[in-house]
Amino acid sequence: MTAEHAVGLVVALAVLGAGLPARAALGEPEASIDRDRRALAMERRPATARGGVTVHELRRPTQSVREFVDPAGTVFAVAWSGGAPPDLPTLLGAYYGEYRAAAARRAPRGPRRVETANVIVETWGHGRALHGRAWLPALVPSGANVDDVQ
Questions:
Q1: What average pLDDT does the segment 84-88 reach?
Q2: Higher confidence at residue 78 or residue 25?
Q3: Is 29 in a helix, a strand, or coil?
Q4: How far apart are CA 5 and CA 8, in angstroms?
Q5: How far apart are CA 37 and CA 47, in angstroms?
Q6: pTM score, whole prediction
Q7: What is the C-alpha to C-alpha distance for residues 98 and 119, in angstroms, rounded to an integer?
Q8: 17 CB-side CA count, 13 A
Q9: What is the per-residue pLDDT across 12-66, written as a single tens digit (0 to 9) for each?
Q10: What is the Rg, in whole angstroms, of the alpha carbon atoms belonging to the chain?
């Protein structure tokens, strides 16, 4: 491969990669939360500590997202509430495809729980009061309570 071809390949890959959505959230490092903030067009609030984990909140007028980070700095859970469904591909990241395949086998209405080998997603609510949470059971830190993921 010539140098010109190599440069062309690098430019082509950069252009293709620039169009991909930011995928952070579940299983990603804490530093990825700013990518989520930009992808979701939300404002980041100051982090808080809850039961040994750090909670980062992203907000806009009609929606909020909370990302839960373990002591090692990995996002192990997310929760959301608001008047519209969240951008699940961004929030679930690499686990979205697994979730989507399992969700396709579930009833489309009412509260639901979708559980796969790696991720659990629960959704509930109606109208302008939609809620949900997702977590990676293998990454929930010792002493953390999944019921606190709200």
A1: 88
A2: 78
A3: strand
A4: 5
A5: 13
A6: 0.79
A7: 8
A8: 6
A9: 333 333 333 434 479 999 988 988 888 888 999 999 998 889 999 999 999 999 9
A10: 17
Would you tell me how many other CB atoms lie within 10 Å of the CB of residue 15? 9
| Residue matched to tokens 């293709």 | 16
Residue 103 and residue 69 in contact, taking contact as beta carbons nearer than 8 Å: no
State the burial class of residue 41 (Cβ atoms within 10 Å of its Cβ: 0-12, 13-18, 19+).
exposed
| Cα dist from 62 to 41, 55, 66, 85, whole Å | 12, 19, 14, 11
Tokens of 87: 């951008």
CA distance 31 to 69: 10
* Structure token digits, residue 9: 């390949």
Ordered alpha helix ranges (H), 1-150: 3-18, 33-40, 88-92, 96-103
